[in-house]
Design the sequence.
């Protein structure tokens, strides 16, 4: 199955910057050299991430001039609400994610093949190993891959395409290391229970585990100070 790459993180960070600074079509972004320092990535990784956004119509790269917000569209749902609504927006996104994913879980539990569950288990192994070495970006990638595999296993192509379009906004990564630790530690056990229930074809048990998982994230968002909510999360491109 397709894995997630650092270039996806680059794309998400640039998109979040556009939203956070409320940039409009035609506005200039920091230079490639500045992004390399800001994100601590190499030129090839940055180029790949920027190309993803350019292909999606988010940015335009003008040779010899710079990087600009595309005339076609601005980035994602983050631009639709003001910064002061950060907590409400996150909680609303969790509501949307819960509605979509509960349906995906029900379908996947009923009809997914055993190899799909094995792939999910592999992502949870990656999740656990990343937790042990405090590599929270890798934890996020493994977590996102696990949930995307549930959508694929649902067999519903509309659900899959819908979550691909909305994934950057619905799966949030935290900038503050302590917050990453709390979010992922609080929900990891529920991921395991969710997968076990799906393997047993126990739809009610799987959905109950997922609700506990979402509940842990929701409690964390509700408890976060305002300044951390404004600056402490980014949408991540994780397709």
Sequence:
């Amino acid at each position: 199955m397709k894995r997630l790459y650092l270039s996806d993180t680059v794309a998400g960070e640039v998109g979040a910057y556009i939203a956070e600074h409320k940039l409009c079509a035609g506005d200039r972004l920091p230079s490639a050299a500045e992004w390399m320092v800001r994100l601590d990535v190499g030129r090839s990784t940055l180029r790949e991430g920027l190309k993803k956004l350019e292909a999606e119509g988010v940015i335009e790269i003008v040779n010899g001039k710079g990087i600009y917000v595309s005339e076609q569209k601005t980035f994602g749902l983050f631009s639709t609400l003001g910064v002061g609504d950060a907590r409400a927006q996150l909680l609303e996104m969790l509501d949307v994610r819960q509605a979509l994913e509960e349906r995906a879980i029900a379908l996947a539990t009923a009809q997914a093949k055993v190899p799909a569950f094995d792939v999910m288990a592999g992502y949870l192994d990656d999740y656990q190993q990343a937790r042990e070495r405090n590599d929270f970006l890798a934890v996020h990638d493994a977590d996102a891959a696990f949930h995307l595999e549930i959508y694929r296993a649902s067999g519903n192509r509309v659900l899959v395409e819908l979550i691909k379009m909305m994934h950057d906004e619905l799966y949030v990564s935290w900038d503050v290391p302590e917050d990453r630790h709390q979010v992922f530690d609080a929900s990891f056990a529920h991921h395991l229970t969710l997968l076990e229930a799906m393997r047993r074809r126990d739809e009610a048990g799987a959905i109950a585990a997922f609700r506990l998982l979402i509940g842990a994230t929701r409690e964390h968002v509700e408890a976060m100070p305002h300044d951390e909510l404004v600056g402490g999360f980014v949408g991540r491109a994780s397709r």
About this structure: The radius of gyration is 18 Å. The longest strand covers residues 59-62.
